[in-house]
Amino acid sequence: MEYGKNLVHLFVLLSLAALVEACAHFKMAPTRNKKSAASKELTFADHDFDGDGRLNREEAEAAYARSFGKLDKDGNGYLSRIELGPNKKRFEELDSDGDDRISIIEYMRSFDRHFSDADSNGDGHLDREEAAKFGIPK
Ligand SMILES: [Ca+2]
Ligand SMILES: [Ca+2]
Ligand SMILES: [Ca+2]
């Protein structure tokens, strides 16, 4: 059923997310000047793989998948209420099976809505301004 497809998709996303991470480290190695390695917030440029100055769906989706890993502080593969932060309503929305934790599959279900909310001119890409709304620092 759908589930298998979702898993394959998820796998692709996680690979992409790992790739983003690898690229970020690679870029960071030679020039250590910017922020210290401790605050390795990835910026727009880190997610714009093809360098066309905007994020397509896949690039934004990889960024979104990666944000899950960042929120999952204890690394157990789920987001607790505390990990997700104080937005109670958002937690209820995301936790579609009501088990009081957010799996990555539940989390990624909200990607589409976030993406279209951020894509204010509706061209299917996020420019820098739009990506900032999406939670990706310029
Ligand atoms: Ca967790
Ligand atoms: Ca859940
Ligand atoms: Ca746009």
Task: Briefly say what this structure is.
The chain is an all-alpha fold and 138 residues long. 56% of the residues lie in helices and 3% in strands. The longest helix is centred in the N-terminal third of the chain and has 27 residues, at 2-28.
Number of strands: 2
Rounded radius of gyration (Å) = 15 Å
Instruction: Indicate the percent of residues in helices.
Output: 55-70%
Indicate the CATH topology: Recoverin, domain 1
Spatial sequence of strands, sheet with the most strands:
1-2
Per DSSP, the total helix count is 8
Outline the secondary-structure elements.
Layout: H1 2-28, H2 44-47, H3 57-71, E1 78-79, H4 81-84, H5 88-94, E2 102-103, H6 104-109, H7 111-118, H8 128-133
Antiparallel strand pairs: 1-2
One calcium ion (CA) binds next to strand 1.
Key structural traits:
single chain; 138 residues; mainly alpha; Recoverin, domain 1; two-stranded antiparallel ribbon; 56% helix; globular; binds calcium ion
Description:
This protein is globular. It is an all-alpha fold. It has helices spanning 2-28, 44-47, 57-71, 81-84, 88-94, 104-109, 111-118, 128-133, and strands at 78-79, 102-103. Helix 1 crosses helix 3. The chain has eight helices and two strands; from the N terminus they run H-H-H-E-H-H-E-H-H-H. It binds calcium ion (3 copies). One calcium ion is lined by residues 95, 97, 99, 101-103, 106. The site of one calcium ion has 7 residues, from strand 2.
